[in-house]
Design brief:
Elements (H helix, E strand, L loop, with lengths): L8 H14 L14 E11 L19 E9 L2 E9 L2 H6 L6 E2 L10 E2 L7 E7 L5 E8 L7 E4 L3 E9 L21 E5 L11 E9 L2 E11 L2 E8 L6 E9 L4 E5 L5 E4 L5 E4 L8 E3 L3 E3 L9 E8 L2 E8 L8 E9 L4 E2 L2 E3 L4 E4 L4 E4 L9 E2 L37 H10 L3 E5 L2 E7 L5 E5 L3 E3 L8 E2 L4 E4 L15 E5 L14 E4 L14 E3 L4 E3 L1
Parallel strand pairs: 1-12, 13-22
Antiparallel strand pairs: 1-8, 2-3, 3-22, 4-5, 6-7, 6-9, 9-11, 10-15, 11-12, 13-18, 13-19, 14-17, 14-20, 15-16, 20-21, 23-24, 24-37, 25-26, 27-36, 28-29, 29-30, 31-32, 31-36, 33-34, 34-35
Length: 535
């Protein structure tokens, strides 16, 4: 029997199939043709790099130093130094559990290095066409079912808006009103005061030209809020038995402009966010990471709180610290006994010098040039006893300072303490170059670049490597003729580069053990000494 088919039926049937697939056809059943494009979502992670679109519109980020320092007097014998340091890309990625991962380029030809998103995190993807009209949306859970795909028309560019609160709770429903366009749409978020987890807003916009068949949408989120981790160091006094640190202000609600990723902070700005310390009753306590929703130019912004140490409670208030949204920060709060303290030491105001006429030792100003002492010798170059290696002429010259304090030559550990306190700067003070460690916003310990002298090179003792800061330590590192040993450290001051600006990288170097049988240069080499004392 002959079957008769209408010529319109095949086209009608294919149209019905296409419409059905637009409504949720799975990747196993969807036909792939020139009339259909599928978009598969692939989550790459979180990009922790500094991104210009996350900066404050006032341009604050371009003028704020990497580390901001303030020192506050709490009483006659106690000070609090606050170091707020913006973490760079490597530090930010390294601070996240799980490390970083490298992503391969997908159809959209993008590559990124990102930190993984934890399993259970919920995120949303919204789809708009090239005219900004709403097309579709879907929610995903990291580690869950990722089979949900978007079916769109090929040979067009679609905009995908991706956002998450970096939490496991379901996102609030998102609806699009009649006639609304992408440029008009915002998403509102509540930031609970008590929550320490579900409030880290992340966002990415992707404009993806789609082709027939399968397309890959590589999602790499960027932070929109600020993350702050605090450390309170009471080593100089003892165990911290109670601590409370608050950040003001943190807004309770925000609106996210979907088209651009811009944030509008809404609600009352007087809210504060508590920084939680999971473990106390130790000399050093470290907080959980705390998420803060606050613009860079907020007029109420400050960090305040209090702590109990040695049975005494002290409160503090630190205004004027600038926080840039989208960045990660480390807040280092050090409780000190002296405002010029670095770590657990007081550094002398300048280099050591000796007056042969009066037989007195003293310190120069912070930019002054002291004397060049051979290692382990209590007399410097220029004194007739400098070449006499008898026991009476050997020792630590810092012990000869007579001002009521017990000064000494620093150890290797003392120098390493400087390195962990924060970034060192190359700085010119009173016309001389040197290494600068800040103790407050306006004060610091300055190590003048002075090089070293080598008596074997010339009778006139020329100064070698004058752009370096060569300083003796008393730690066993190098070989000496008598069998004792010591180390020499240098903050390597680089000359101006091609752009006529000084490099900020400071390199510490050590004089390691010399080969057996070699001449001992240490006994002939003279360096500056910066004495230290304990509290």
């Amino acid at each position: 029997m002959k079957r008769i088919f209408s010529s319109h039926l095949p086209a009608l049937f294919l149209g019905m199939v296409f419409i059905f697939c637009l409504g949720g056809c799975s990747k196993e059943t969807a036909p792939v043709s020139d009339n259909l494009a599928k978009v598969q979502v692939v989550l790459g992670g979180i990009d922790n790099k500094e991104v210009s679109t996350l900066k404050a519109s006032s341009g604050t980020s371009s003028t704020v130093a990497k580390t901001q320092v303030q020192t506050i007097r709490l009483d006659e014998g106690m000070y609090l130094q606050a170091n707020l340091t913006r973490l760079d890309e490597n530090e930010q990625a390294g601070s996240v559990a799980g490390g970083s991962v490298s992503l391969k380029a997908g159809i959209n030809k993008t590559k990124a290095v990102a930190t993984p998103v934890a399993n259970g995190i919920v995120y949303r993807v919204l789809v708009f066409d090239d005219a900004g009209n709403y097309v579709d949306q879907a929610d995903y859970t990291v580690g869950g079912d990722m089979s949900r795909q978007f079916f769109v028309n090929p040979h067009k560019t679609y905009t995908f808006i991706c956002y998450s609160l970096n939490g496991s709770s379901a996102l609030a429903p998102f609806t699009v009103g009649a006639g609304q366009n992408l440029s008009d749409l915002t998403a509102s978020f509540n930031i609970p005061y008590t929550s320490q987890v579900d409030n880290d807003l992340m966002y990415q916009r992707i404009d993806l030209p789609v082709v027939p068949g399968l397309n890959t949408l590589d999602v790499v989120f960027k932070h929109k809020f600020t993350e702050l981790t605090a450390k309170l160091d009471g080593t100089a006094f003892g165990n911290i038995t109670q601590a409370e640190v608050y950040f003001a202000s943190s807004y309770p609600t925000v609106d996210l402009k979907l088209n651009t990723g811009a944030i509008e902070y809404t609600g009352w700005s007087g809210w504060v966010k508590e920084v939680i310390f999971p473990t106390i009753n130790t000399p050093v306590i470290i907080s959980n990471p705390t998420i803060i929703a606050c613009p860079a130019d907020d007029e109420y912004r400050k960090i305040y709180g209090g702590f109990t140490i040695g049975g005494i409670y002290k409160s503090f208030d630190i205004p004027g610290l600038t926080i840039v949204p989208g960045e990660r920060y480390a807040l280092n709060l050090v409780i000190k006994k002296d405002p010029s303290q670095l770590g657990n030491l007081i550094w002398a105001p300048g280099y050591l010098k000796y007056d042969g006429t009066t037989n007195l030792y003293s310190f120069t100003s912070n930019t002054g040039l002291g004397d060049y002492f051979p290692f382990g010798q209590i007399y410097p170059y220029g004194d007739p006893r400098v070449y006499d290696r008898s026991q009476a002429n050997l020792g630590d010259p810092c012990l000869s300072i007579n001002d009521g304090y017990l000064w000494r030559t620093p150890t290797k550990a003392d120098y390493e303490t400087l390195e962990v306190l924060g970034p060192v700067e190359n700085r010119v003070v009173n016309g001389v170059n040197g290494a600068w460690y800040p103790t407050s916003a306006t004060t610091g310990v300055f190590f003048r670049a002075a090089g070293y002298k080598d008596n074997q090179s010339s009778p006139s003792n020329p100064i070698w490597e004058p752009t370096n800061v060569w300083l003796w330590s008393q730690t066993s590192e190098g070989y000496l003729e008598e069998g004792s040993s010591g180390g020499m450290f240098a903050f390597n001051m680089l000359p101006p580069n091609a752009s006529n600006t000084r490099e900020t990288q400071i390199e510490r170097r050590e004089l390691n053990s010399l080969p057996a049988g070699s001449n001992d240069l240490s006994r002939f080499r003279g360096s500056q000494i910066r004495c230290v004392r304990n509290h």
